[in-house]
From TrEMBL:
<keyword id="KW-0695">RNA-directed DNA polymerase</keyword>
<protein>
    <recommendedName>
        <fullName>RNA-directed DNA polymerase</fullName>
        <ecNumber>2.7.7.49</ecNumber>
    </recommendedName>
</protein>
<dbReference type="InterPro" id="IPR043502">
    <property type="entry name" value="DNA/RNA_pol_sf"/>
</dbReference>
<keyword id="KW-0051">Antiviral defense</keyword>
<dbReference type="Pfam" id="PF00078">
    <property type="entry name" value="RVT_1"/>
</dbReference>
<dbReference type="InterPro" id="IPR000477">
    <property type="entry name" value="RT_dom"/>
</dbReference>
<keyword id="KW-0460">Magnesium</keyword>
<feature type="domain" description="Reverse transcriptase">
    <location>
        <begin position="44"/>
        <end position="270"/>
    </location>
</feature>
<dbReference type="InterPro" id="IPR000123">
    <property type="entry name" value="Reverse_transcriptase_msDNA"/>
</dbReference>
<dbReference type="InterPro" id="IPR051083">
    <property type="entry name" value="GrpII_Intron_Splice-Mob/Def"/>
</dbReference>
<keyword id="KW-0548">Nucleotidyltransferase</keyword>
<dbReference type="GO" id="GO:0046872">
    <property type="term" value="F:metal ion binding"/>
</dbReference>
<comment type="similarity">
    <text>Belongs to the bacterial reverse transcriptase family.</text>
</comment>
<dbReference type="GO" id="GO:0003964">
    <property type="term" value="F:RNA-directed DNA polymerase activity"/>
</dbReference>
<keyword id="KW-0479">Metal-binding</keyword>
<dbReference type="GO" id="GO:0003723">
    <property type="term" value="F:RNA binding"/>
</dbReference>
<dbReference type="GO" id="GO:0051607">
    <property type="term" value="P:defense response to virus"/>
</dbReference>
Amino acid sequence: MIAIVVAARNLSDACKKVVRNKGSAGIDGMATRELKTFIDAHRSKVVHQLISKNYRSQAIKGVEIPKSNGKTRLLGVPTVVDRWFQQAVSQQLVIHFELDFESESYGFRPRKNLQLAVLKSQGYINDGYQDLIERDLKSFFDEVQHYKLLQLIYNKVKCRTTLWLIRKWLRAPIVKNGRFCKRRKGLPQGSPLSPLLSNIMLDQLDKHLKSRGFRFIRYADDFSIYAKSKAAARAIGNEVYLFLKDKLDLPINPSKEWYPQTFYIQGVGL
């Protein structure tokens, strides 16, 4: 797969995407507008480093951004060059996974959006599934276990160089208040690769729910499960809690319970 990742067309498309998305500079100070100049001067060198496993990813810049509840969320900003390669990997990795994702997953996917998720929820409610449990995964992006994620990727992509590269990005330290902090788990929010990696991880939950015949919707790390009684909703919630804890080693926010006849997702209520 790595040969396709570093193919000229794929790298060119990745460069255009990174430049178009703009975003702030990483710890090296390089702006997105400087990426094309860098590629013209150093492309052959950095591609060779990547293929030979001599590429050195840089630390992630930690940036605190405010949340609507008054708290802050830590955004991890990779360097522009790392974002370029991450985008290139994402463009090829998604080909191996997208068709296998469940239709009930609506976040970070082509031709999927919040509006479609809301319409799906209305369909469930109209069909009589009016008792639901709505949860978000507590600090999901900070809690993803790297070894579980890498195994899921390797099950489909048998390219050790690609796995080596993804692992380096996952383990890259984050700089917070001038200090380098090691990372042994989690996905940096700010990486072009993280949305896809999060869906790869949570697709395991989707497949479990689907196999059990549950009505559900997932949008990123928020999910809602629909039932026809409060008792059924509670029972399903307990089952999901155990699956997340035992199979994915993920925490779940205990403060959220079932909300009869009300659907909330990403700040939208119906």
